[in-house]
Design a protein that fits this description.
about 280 residues; alpha/beta; Rossmann fold; 2 domains; six-stranded parallel sheet; three-stranded parallel sheet; 10 helices; 11 strands; about 15% strand; globular; binds NADP nicotinamide-adenine-dinucleotide phosphate
């Protein structure tokens, strides 16, 4: 049996369409600031996509391309201005930042209700409570893609491979919140296959091409591949897609799976940020 392919492009398109319709009825346009430091080619592609999406959704968008040598203090000053700018509801600083800049310090300088990436310590910490303000876009995308298959998360064995603060851990916490039984694997896990083979839901966020092979996957599993790896001029995920799709029940492709959904979730987070701004004293 061949897996059903989860079409992230199609689902994302319909979400962006609904964001667009909501924007039409809003008095004030959602404002998104995109900040990039340096010329990392991958970051440039991601920021271009985010700019395109926000224009398509008819947001007000400001883009800042700062020089590679921009000092930490200058970046913090810009974020402070954006925090105070009432036209800007969401501030997104593209990571990674150049090595001379403290990423955590910069991320945490964004006001939590403008943190549309959901990366500030406060928003990440809030994943431990039921009172999430803005959650990381990729993690929300993963949950929505699983739910798009009609799979009930409650009671399932869910295995997350990767434990970064911005993908693996938030995904694991969200699955736990939805009553799955969670196992988190990482680079020190011995015999990963022992865990992945038992997963009804398998989420892989590592950044290693073809790490997950067919014999590591349970028949009928929902497989969500977050990884993005460049091989020559081709993008591939962390899952050996061609072979794993023969055994999985559902699988996301790379590209066309988690990537476009993450971008759609950023748009939804920006709408949420507009609503949050109306509840915060400016
Ligand atoms: P990261 O911060 O580098 O974290 C990678 C994680 O993988 C770490 O927890 C690491 O374990 C674990 N790991 C490394 N080698 C492993 C192995 N052989 N077996 C099991 N686990 C292993 O990366 P990230 O930011 O979470 O991103 C992961 C991937 O997702 C990347 O390819 C990235 O480009 C992609 N991504 C995609 C989107 C999207 O929208 N599609 C968004 C974000 C990220 P340790 O903790 O022990 O080091």
């Amino acid at each position: 049996m061949s897996a059903k392919i989860i079409d992230g492009n199609k689902i994302a398109k319909s979400i962006i369409e609904s964001v667009k319709n909501k924007v039409k009825s809003m008095k004030e346009k959602p404002g998104l600031a995109l900040v990039m430091v340096g010329n990392n080619p991958a970051s440039e592609v991601y920021v271009n996509f985010k700019e395109k999406d926000s224009k398509e959704a008819e947001f007000y968008c400001e883009r800042y391309n700062l020089d590679e040598k921009t000092g930490e203090m200058d970046l913090l000053k810009l974020i402070n201005e954006l925090n105070r700018n009432p036209k800007i509801h969401g501030v997104l600083v593209q990571l990674p930042l150049p090595k001379h800049i403290d990423e955590k310090l910069v991320t945490d300088s964004i006001l939590p209700h403008k943190d549309v990436d959901g990366f500030t310590s406060l928003n990440l910490g809030n994943l431990l409570s039921e009172k999430t303000i803005l959650a990381p876009a990729t993690a929300i995308a993963v949950i929505k893609l699983i739910e798009s298959t009609g799979t009930r998360i409650e009671g399932k064995n869910a295995v997350v491979v990767g434990r970064s603060n911005i993908v693996g851990k938030p995904v694991a916490l969200m699955l736990l919140e939805k009553n799955a039984t969670i196992t988190v694997c990482h680079s020190k896990t011995k015999n990963i296959a022992e865990y992945t083979k038992k997963a009804d839901i398998l989420v892989v966020a590592v950044g290693k091409a073809n790490l997950i092979k067919k014999d590591m996957v349970k028949e009928g599993a929902v497989v969500i591949d977050v990884g993005i790896n460049r091989i020559g001029n081709k993008l591939v995920g962390d899952v050996d897609f061609e072979n794993v799709k023969e055994i999985a029940g559902f699988i996301t492709p790379v590209p066309g799976g988690v990537g476009p959904m993450t971008r759609a979730m950023l748009m939804e987070n920006t709408l949420k940020a507009v609503e949050l701004s109306s509840r915060v004293l400016q």
